[in-house]
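> Could you send the Peroxisomal membrane protein 11C isoform X2 prediction when you get a chance?

Sure thing. Input:
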Amino acid sequence: MAAVPPFRGLVSVLETYRGRDRVIRTICYGCQLAGGILVARRQPGEPSLGQGLLTVSAQLSHCRTVLRLFDDLAMLSYSCQYGLGNKEKDTAMRWLSIFNNVADQLYYPCEHVAWAADAEIIHANSSRWWTLSTTLWGFSLLLGIARSLRILLLLRRKQHTESRALNF
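Output:
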């Protein structure tokens, strides 16, 4: 029997773009949380592990921003495939999904312009572009939450209808 390499699961996760992004995101947010706590509790004269963790978080966040430069075509393909959601049975779900796709589609170029302005590739006010991209990202998150709540509502309705049918 062959021995199973100890890190096989982690290696398989890191071999995919989505898996690598999830690992980077988890470490990034973990460092940000721990770093923020340590900086807030730091006593004068103590070494700043917290600041180091915040620096790691910022670098990983920048890494994710650069990697997202290549997400446009995948997002465009997804949006085109979904189209106007004609296969969607629920009208509210259709419109939530369409608006979510529009927000996501607009997010990427705004973030790219902000990144390019920060990198001094173009001359633009990056803070305005970062604000716009963050607003679109937040809007996309809210639409995703609304979609999830709508799915829960539809599932509860279906469950209630099925349980009523069984009781008769």
